[in-house]
Write the structure tokens for this entry.
Amino acid sequence: SRYPELLKNFAFKLRQAVNEDDEIKDEVYKLMRSGEDRKMACVEWNGTLTDSEMDKLRCLQMGSFEISTQFFKMGYWELEGEVLFDMFHPTLIYLLQGYTPSLSCDFTEANTMLLSDALNKDDDDYRNNKREIDSILEKIYRSHNNTLFISKNSGCRNMLL
């Protein structure tokens, strides 16, 4: 960014507005996880995945896999008996959670790498393997009371916001 101070202020204000406004959070849930109450309790992980399935799902979490945080970027909704999945746009994830405000060159480079090398790569990998990944997600979703708001050992960070 040519003017990192503008991005810094914008990202901070956006993140603060979203985090402090329950109406915004409710609307995001209506859009990305319709039919799910954002204040519901987590569902404890009770499944098993093959190594291949875990590898496929790594693009949902910047190359790593941890079931209690794996699905925070995922939206889902049911339509005519089918469940549809979609990933939050990488720019929104970047602004709401990933952007590190700083004016130094190192942080500007780090932010650029986060957006281009990690978040955009995750999105590309998801889109390029969507059918296979969505099939795995549906298996998990159906076996956990139709949600990906899943905890492990009572720890959960799979909420959208």
